[in-house]
Amino acid sequence: MGQIAILQIQVVEGEGAVHVPGSRAARFLTIAITDETGKPVEGAAVTFHLPEDGPSGAFGNELRTDVVLTDSHGRATAPVFTLNRVAGRFQIRVIAAKEQARAGIVSFQYIGEPAGGSSTPSVALARHRARWIAIAALVGGGAVAGLLAGRSGGSTATAPPAPSAPTPPPQLSIGTPTISIGHP
Questions:
Q1: What is the rounded distance in angstroms from the CA atom of residue 80 to the CA atom of residue 85?
Q2: Among candidates 95, 80, 7, which has minimal Cα distance to 45?
Q3: Domains of the chain as residue ranges with CATH
Q4: More reliable by pLDDT, 183 or 57
Q5: How far apart are CA 111 and CA 56, in angstroms?
Q6: Residue 97: CB atoms within 10 Å
Q7: How far is CA 179 from CA 7, 53, 101, 174, 175, in A?
Q8: pLDDT digits (tens, 9 = 90+) for 77-134
C-alpha cells in the first residue's frame, strides 16, 4: 500500500448541534476521514479542539483538546464533553493526521440560552429594553389620547389658527473649488 497523500474530512453527524448550558454534549460530533480516492482511512489521529474562552466546554480529561483514532470505516467521534454556561456559537476545530497527510475543518456548535432566567447579560438587557419600549408606548399613547379628547371634548368651538406667511427658502451658494497638487 502506498503512502497517503491527501486526507479529506466530512462531518457525518452533529454539525450545528444546540446544547443545554452546563450539560454533557447530547449530540456527538462524528467525522469521516477518506484518502484522495474516497477510501476510508483507518488509524488516522483526529484531534478535537474546543475554544479556550466564551461558549465552550471541556472533555472528560478536563482539557479542551482530545485525540481519537479513526475506526475501520474511517470514522471518529468526539469524546464526551461538558459544556460551560456561556450561551452562543462556538467552533470545534478538527485536525486529522495520517503519515505525512494532514487536513482540518471547523464544526459550528451552539450553547442555548439558560432556561427560565435572565442569568446572561443579553437576556437582562433585552428585558430592560422591552420595559422601556412599553413605558414609552404608554406615555405616547396617553399624550395622543389627551390631544384627541381635548379636540373632541368641550362645548365651545375655537377658530383654527391663522396660517402664517410662508418662509422664504434658504439661500444657497457654492464657493470656489480648490485643487491641490502634491502633498495637501
A1: 16
A2: 95
A3: 7-111 (2.60.40.10)
A4: 57
A5: 8
A6: 16
A7: 59, 52, 60, 15, 13
A8: 999 999 999 999 999 999 999 999 999 999 999 999 877 654 444 444 444 444 444 4
CB 56 within 8 Å of CB 86: yes
pTM for the predicted model, two decimal places? 0.61
Q: How far is CA 129 from CA 93, 118, 135, 136, in A?
A: 36, 13, 10, 11
Which residue has cell 456561556? 86
Complete DSSP assignment for the chain: -PPP--EEEEEEE-TT-EE-TTSB-SS--EEEEEETTS-B-TT-EEEEE--SSSS-EEETTSSSEEEEE--TTSEEEPPPEEE-S--EEEEEEEEEEETTEEEEEEEEEEEPPPTTS--SHHHHHHHHHHHHHHHHHHHHHHHHHHHHHHHHSSS---PPPPPPPPPPPPP----------S--
- What tens digit of pLDDT does each residue of 6-47 get? 999 999 999 999 999 999 987 789 999 999 999 999 999 999
State the Cα–Cα distance between residues 17 and 63, nearest whole angstrom: 21
What is the distance between the alpha carbons of residues 2 and 106, in angstroms, rounded to a whole number?
A: 28
Q: Which three cell numbers stand for residue 52?
A: 479556550
Q: How far apart are CA 30 and CA 92, in angstroms?
A: 12
What is the rounded distance in angstroms from the CA atom of residue 12 to the CA atom of residue 41? 15
